[in-house]
C-alpha cells in the first residue's frame, strides 16, 4: 500500500514511520508537514493510504480532504485529541488513532485498511460534501465512545440497535455500548436495505437473522445469530414480508 504521512510534527512523523516498519505491505512514498505540501504529493504520488493529522497550520486535516481533486486515498486520522472522532467518521475515515500511537492499535488500523482494500479494490472513500446527510450502509464504519472505551466498528458487524430512553445500545461482538442518540434519528441515517425497524425499541441487521417464527397477533419473532430474539410488530411484519418477498 502506497502510503503518505501528513503531520506538522517531525518527531510524530518519525515515530509513525518507525512503527510502520513492522508492516511489510506498507510502502511509505512520502511525508508532508501541512496540507499545502500534501496536496501536490497526493496528486503526483497517488497514494493508497493517508496517515493524516487533524490540527495543522493552515488547512486542517478535514480541509485537506475536501481540497483533494479526483479519487481520494483511504484515510487513518492521527491526532492527540478525541474530540474530532465523530467528524472523522463523517469523512469515512477507516480508523482514528490517538497519539501517542501504540503498536497494537496501529495493527488494528492496518487490518481495517487491508479489509477495505480487499472488499473495494477499485474504490476509495470520498469525504462527504454535506456531513450528516450520508446514508450509512454495512460497509461504513462508525466511531462509538462509551465512557472511557472507544470503538471504530463496521456497521455490518452491528446486529442490533436498542432504544434506551435518550440513548441507543449497539450490539456487536461481545460489546454493548450506549450512544447518545434517538432510535428515530439513527433510523434516518441507516440503509433500509440492511437495517430494519422491527418495533418501537429495536432496529435489526437483516444479515444477522438466523430464524423467523410466527408470533402473537400477526407479528413475527426473529432470532439473530448470537441468540438475540426480537419481536417484529404486526404492523412492521407486513413491511418485513414485503421487503423479503420476491
TrEMBL record:
4-aspartylphosphate modifications at: 53
HTH LytTR-type domain residues: 144-246
SMART domains: LytTR, REC
Keywords: Phosphoprotein
Pfam families: LytTR, Response_reg
GO molecular function, one term: phosphorelay response regulator activity
Region (Disordered): 116-135
Stretches assigned to the Response regulatory domain: 2-114
Cross-referenced InterPro entries: CheY-like_superfamily (IPR011006), LytR-like (IPR046947), LytTR_DNA-bd_dom (IPR007492), Sig_transdc_resp-reg_receiver (IPR001789)
PANTHER family the UniProt entry points to: STAGE 0 SPORULATION PROTEIN A HOMOLOG, TRANSCRIPTIONAL REGULATOR-RELATED
Protein name, per record: Response regulator
Source species of the chain: Rudanella paleaurantiibacter
Amino acid at each position: 500500500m502506497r502510503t503518505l504521512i501528513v503531520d506538522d510534527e517531525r518527531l510524530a512523523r518519525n515515530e509513525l514511520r518507525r512503527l510502520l516498519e513492522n508492516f511489510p505491505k506498507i510502502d511509505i512514498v512520502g511525508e508532508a508537514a501541512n496540507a499545502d505540501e500534501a496536496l501536490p504529493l497526493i496528486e503526483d504520488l497517488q497514494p493508497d493510504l493517508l496517515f493524516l493529522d487533524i490540527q495543522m497550520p493552515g488547512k486542517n486535516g478535514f480541509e485537506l480532504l475536501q481540497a483533494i481533486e479526483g479519487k481520494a486515498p483511504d484515510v487513518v486520522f492521527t491526532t492527540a485529541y478525541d474530540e474530532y472522532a465523530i467528524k472523522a467518521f463523517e469523512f469515512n475515515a477507516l480508523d482514528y488513532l490517538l497519539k501517542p500511537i501504540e503498536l497494537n492499535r496501529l495493527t488494528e488500523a492496518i487490518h481495517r485498511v487491508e479489509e477495505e482494500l480487499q472488499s473495494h479494490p477499485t474504490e476509495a472513500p470520498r469525504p462527504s460534501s454535506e456531513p450528516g446527510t450520508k446514508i450509512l450502509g454495512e460497509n461504513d464504519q462508525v466511531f462509538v465512545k462509551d465512557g472511557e472505551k472507544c470503538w471504530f466498528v463496521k456497521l455490518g458487524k452491528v446486529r442490533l440497535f436498542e432504544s434506551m430512553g435518550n440513548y441507543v445500545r449497539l450490539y456487536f461482538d461481545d460489546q454493548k455500548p450506549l450512544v447518545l442518540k434517538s432510535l428515530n434519528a439513527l433510523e434516518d441515517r441507516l440503509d433500509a436495505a440492511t437495517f430494519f425497524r422491527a418495533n418501537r425499541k429495536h432496529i435489526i441487521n437483516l444479515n444477522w437473522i438466523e430464524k423467523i417464527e410466527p408470533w402473537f397477533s400477526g407479528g413475527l419473532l426473529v432470532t439473530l445469530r448470537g441468540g438475540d430474539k426480537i419481536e417484529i410488530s404486526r404492523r412492521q411484519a407486513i413491511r418485513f414480508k414485503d421487503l423479503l418477498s420476491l
